[in-house]
Every structure is written in structure tokens, then in C-alpha cells.
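As a warm-up, study this chain.
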Amino acid sequence: MNQLTRRTTLKGLTALPLIGCAARQPETPSPLTKAPWHLADKIANDIVAPQFPDQDFTITDFGAVGDNTTDCSQAFTLAITACHNAGGGRVVVPQGTFLSGPIHLKSNVNLHVSQGATIAFHTDPKRYLPEVFTRWEGVEFMGYSPLIYAYEQNNIAVTGKGILDGRANETTWWPWKGNQEWGKPGFPSQEQGRNLLFADAEAGVPPEDRHYGEGYYFRPPFVQPYRCHNILIEDVTIVAAPFWLLNPVLCENVTVRGVTLKSLGPNSDGCDPESCKNILIENCHFDTGDDCIAIKSGRNADGRRINTPTENVVIRNCEMLAGHGGVVIGSEISGGVRYVFAEKNTMSSPDLERGFRIKTNSIRGGVLEHLYMRNCSIGTVQNAIVINFHYEEGDAGNFDPTVRHVEVNNLSCENAGQVFQVRGFERAPITDLRFINCQFKRADTPGIIENVDKLVIESVLINGKTFKT
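Now compare it with the structure written out below.
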């Protein structure tokens, strides 16, 4: 019988065997095994949100009309340019619904969406031309503009109690996914363009020569600052996104605070920092069609070409409902990731597939290290802890991932279909993996842990019983 399906009984629990693990259960963790949480405080304190001059530029003064009909694209451009040229300030969106194409931010501009205001974005793809330099699923190319975009700008923000509405739905943007769930008769699919783009990246075609705008059906990200410094996204509500909602790329000093993210379409990731440094995500609400938070750093050859990890990430006091995963690392992680700290987050939904998740494979590769979670709670989840080296293409490449120094401490889970789905490679095991003071009150199965070196399981309860290897 295959080892992955053979069952053994551990302390009265029906469990899949823990294969290739060197486990120990010290009464208290030694100093060498304690997570460096003091670094999380330092990271958060060192991230200073941008400040702006005390002057406002209201879009209605530049021709905008909040009647949900008038095209206000030019008014946004004029107001942002005037604000930038005057040394910075707020571009204010007053009450009303303002229809616009893509909005491009400039340095020292805070796009402030007032309470009672909505920016509703056009759904005609032609509005998102000409092409801009962007990244899609971890690959750089020239494509449709994100709905809100900035390139190589400093001190930018999107704030306020208003709404950003991408107006994606079952007949707009989302059918371009093209899979069985979202594809619709008569609608085009991204599949062919996606394959061509990924082939270009593997072949080393320069990204500025990868033109995949009109006719290739890449749904644009909602908010994508690219190579920017000092970014604040605060309080806004973002709904109905064509693709990923918040996607800072190659940015430094990013604050995401008090944001509500609601989009249940395909690839509706909530917040995906890619190849960024110093990120604080706090007090946010996620109800998404894909991962709530996914830390990324580029896909395959393109990620290795740029070779920039995401590092110094603090995620705290967030609420996560539906999604493929709560706190996720990967799968576009070829540039690596280090020092991620997630604490005091809550997750729960029958539609939440995974709580804490690392996804990679031997095509993605990457060095993933110093990843820590503590004092989090999960209500209902299908799979509580997932570390998977066999994601998507599986073991089909020559770039074994390195995953090391991972700790989950003081996690409480009410209901889980499966507790563990932890699978390294025998030739490249997960190293220094620790589960400490975790309680899974009701679980259908403990699941599987295989190919782990230096595994620590201490004070872990599943269905009221101590879990030991």
C-alpha cells in the first residue's frame, strides 16, 4: 500500500503517517527555536506612512460629474496633474458615483475617496490602453493598465471611506478566466495568451518586447503601484475586481490599513505584495474569491531574472472570510520570501479552503524562510495548515524550493476538515518546522506531514487529544 494513504493510529487518532520526520517534544522551546517577534515590532515601527501637503484638489472643479454616466477620466487626470505640479496634496472625490477609465497616480498625491463617493470603472477593455509596463501572475510584460496604477512614483495614497468598484461580474472581465467554472459561451479566454506570455518569459524575451494588450484577454489588477516608494492604502472598500485587488510590485514601505476587500470572482486575491520590502497590513477585512493575502516574488524564470524577494511583512488584526487561503505564501515565489509575521488574525468560513498556506514546486523554487504565525484563530476551514511542494505543475522542474524556519504558535481552530497537509521533497525536506501550543477542537483527520527535518510538535491538541509523532 502507498505510504501516503496507509493509516496508522496515533494516541487514539486516525492519522496519515508522519514520514521522514525527525521530531522532538521539549518541555519548553530552547532560545534557538523562538521566533524573532521583536523584528515584527521593528518592521512595523520603521514603516512610516506618507504625509501630504494640506491642500485639496476636488475632481468636480476639473469637470467631473458624479452621475454614474459622465466619463470623468479626464477630470481625474487633470486633478492629479495639478496636485502633483503644486507639490502634492489630496485629490478629493466627493459624494456621487464617478465613472472613469484607469487612474494613474503621481508622486505626492493622495487620491481621497470620500464617504458616500464611488469610483466606478469602465468595463470596456479598450479604455485600458495604451499598454503599460505591468506584472501578471508574476511575469512582466506590456499589457492593459491596472485600474489604479503608478510607476516609479514616491509618496502616493488611496484613502477615504468611499468605494472603488471594478464592476466585474459573470459577464464582464471574469469570463476571460476561461475555465470550466467561469468560462462562458461566446466569451474569449486568457488561456492562449497566458501560455504565450509564459513561454516568452522562459525564452528570455525582454519584458518590454512582450506585448499582450488587446486580443490576449489578461484581466488587469485593480490597484498596482510598480517600483514605488512610500505607499498608503487606507479605509477604502474595493469590490468586484477583474483580477487581484491590491498588488504592489517591487515597492518599498507599503501600508495597507483598514481596507475592506470584497470580490468573489476568479483570481480575486485580496492583497498580493510582490518582490516588495517593508509591508504592513493591518485591520483589514477580506472576503475574496481567491487567497486573502498572498506573498509573492515572481514566477519561474522571470522571478529568478529579477531575483528580488518579498521581505519584512507584518500582517495583524485582519479578518478573513471566504478565500482559497487566509495567509498564503506563493505560488509565484521564485524570487524568495523572508521574515513574514502574522499575528492576531481571525479566519472563518465554510468557503475558506486553507488557513496558513505555503505553495510552491520544483519549477517555482525559491528560498522561503523565517515565516511566523502566532495568536491567530480559525473558526471553520477545510485545511488548516498546508505546506505543499507539489502545487500546480508539481515536481516537474530543476529548482527545488527551500522552506525553513517556519513556526505556528498559539493557533486555535474550531472546525477543520484536515489539520495538516505538509509535504516537502525527500531530497529537499522542509527544515525547522514548529507547531507549538496549537488546538484543533474538531477535525475530521489530522492529515499528513512528510519529508520534514527538525520538526517540533509541542502541546498540539486535536479533538482534545495530544498529537505526537
